[in-house]
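INFO batch 0412 | record 1 of 1 | parsing
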Amino acid sequence: MGIGAVRLAGRLRAFYEVNAELRVAGVRRSYLLRVPEGHGRDHPAPLVVVIHGFMKSPSHQRTMSRWDELAATRGFLTVYPLGTGVPPHWEPHGAPQRRGPDQVDFIAGLVREVSTRYPIDPDRVYASGMSNGGGLASMLALALPETFAAVGSVAGLYSQSPGEPTARAVPLIAFHGGLDQIVPIEGGVRRLGSPLPAVAEWMASYARSCGCTTRTDVDLSGEITRVRYTGGRNGSEVVWYRIADAGHTWPGGVPLPEVVTGPTSGDLDATTLTWEFFCDHPRSAPAPLSQGSSARRG
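INFO prediction complete | emitting tokens
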């Protein structure tokens, strides 16, 4: 094997890094688990399930989003599941699965698996995803409302309707770039075999399914608008940020190749804002506490 091949093999190993696996319905699935240094086994901690996008991987999502940097200072665990297929991706919940069990079943099994290895606070289990993974995070809110206290999505691919209201409404925070050409904010295209709605329409529909009664729009800058729906069941709310000058990227994260994804906004820190939103919404929370704007940059 030549030097070039060795280097490529090394990069691929790093890209697809995982450190644990489990079996779901007899199928082996892999994931990357990170535990903060000094984490004590006698103290239940929050868990954030961080879900990569189409063609990406756990280690890529970990590096880009910087979730572990925040986890190290805030004391929560992160787990990054690996999708199926080549390239890795997430198939829609409820659709025929070509590679093993339904993805929601995998994530449910993953939460149970991590909870058997470490003390996890069941009221503070969350999910955050990017693109195809952001779409899956939104489906977890609908399919597993008693498991996930709140969810977050960046540049989410919302291929499925919120549908009927669930018994427990799950708070959601989201971010979407106005220059996103991969998952356009206005929808009107097909991705992974499904038509995509306009993001504003999907968010409004999800907010209605949560029982939200009030909408407030705030212009945070010339490029950033925050839309907030409140008054939902069990104190739920839906918050999403429209970032006019951002592409299919993670605000405040490691920039992706701009020629492919468009620009990355440095005016918001999506990871910190999402974590603050999560902190305001444990599963038993009676009402939101903050306005979710302290992680702006500049």
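INFO post-check: The chain has eight helices and twelve strands.
INFO record closed
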